[in-house]
Amino acid sequence: MDAEMHNMKTRKVWSLVPAPPKEVKVVGCRWVYNLKKNNEGKAVRYKARLVAQGFSQRKGENYDVTFPPVINFSLIRLFFAIFVNLLQWLHWQVDVNCAYLYAKLDETVYMRQPPGYKSKKYPDYVCKLDPALYGLKQSGRQWFTEISSVLEKLGFTKLKWANGVFLKNKVILLLYVDDIVILGKTNKEIQMTVKLLANNFDLKIIGKTRTLLGIQFIEENNKVYLSQEHYITEVYNRYKKFLPPISSLPISKGSVYSKLQCPTTDEETKEMERYPYRSVIGCLAFIASRTRPDINYAINLFSQFQSNPGVVHWSGLMKLLGYLQATRNYKLDIGNIAEISLTAYLDADFASCTDDRISVGGHVVFCGNAPVSWRTAKQKSMTLSSVEAEFLSICETSKELMWLKNVLEECQSTNVLLGDISCKLLSDNMAAIQFSKSSIENNLTKHTDVKFHFVRNLLNLKV
Fold first, then answer.
1. Which SUPFAM superfamilies match (predicted)?
2. pLDDT at position 440 over 90
């Protein structure tokens, strides 16, 4: 805590001023304690951080726009598959120390003095913040604005099709808040980039990417694989008191889950309150979105009952956790790539939800043979046939394919040559395929008109 306060004073984070009028909001602050771990999951450092209580801010008074652009993790998988595994570029990771403190605030924000560190001379004064302290609603966005400005002055180009991606010659920067991954063709280019960044920010130089956002980057035979074995073990140990059974499948064959299995009495609802259903969902959803597409359908299914889960849903969720524990050593192979081509496989489960009969669609996109993007979700529109359900999946998958292709083509426009990028979209419903290619129109398909023209246009352009 003393070290954090010393850092605050050194960086001149605030100035003590008389308290403003009562109608002006003064936000609170608190200490947050964290345990830093290495890539093996072992504790290496205890850290205390002072954070503002941004939840008490008032929109229009002390904050406005809050969205912080960060890189989509699908692009991290895509860039590692292509540039690291296929083209054999080098990768390096750095972290900006106290990143938010580099960003200036556009609004006037007052904060109470930190607990345990009140000024003896001015105990009734408040802190007028200058940089964007952690915890404020706009801090993430202000930091991204600051680092974007610095990188552009250094000659980097920000991609229009992707948040958090900057390019310069044969160097690519991937930004996720204060974590920066540098991809470079040569070690010289990487070191020059590190030096440029160090001239503008206080950096923690980590070296080769080993752990990023809770994901392990494992290098074997000149290929990088992704794993969350440590995190899965941590989650399992956190909830093992609920005795999750070891399972060989994410969902047991023939299992049916519906709202009819939700609690219907106050006693049943109160009984379920002792189970951390939403917390487990959050942990497993994070795993599914990063390295485990094999549980994506299951986590989407169990997420539908978060507002009122029943015993049956909890039991199924525990089996899913047991499956993850049994397969915790599985790694995502993003190294099986021989060419830069995008191939998407899709499917739709027509009227599968017994509660509302809305269909479920899903897809997985490969670059070469490396899975880089996947999604499972209930469709937004009600469909009247398996053809319509499949066609809606075709439409959603087409958008994902086009986005990934646009990102790669924009990279090529900045002197990162990748050659021709082919796209394939594969469906197993022949009627939906014919519907996409031809001008079929009847009462069953008129309401899909806009999506139909979108897909037809892509086919006509041969993108």
1. DNA/RNA polymerases (SSF56672)
2. no
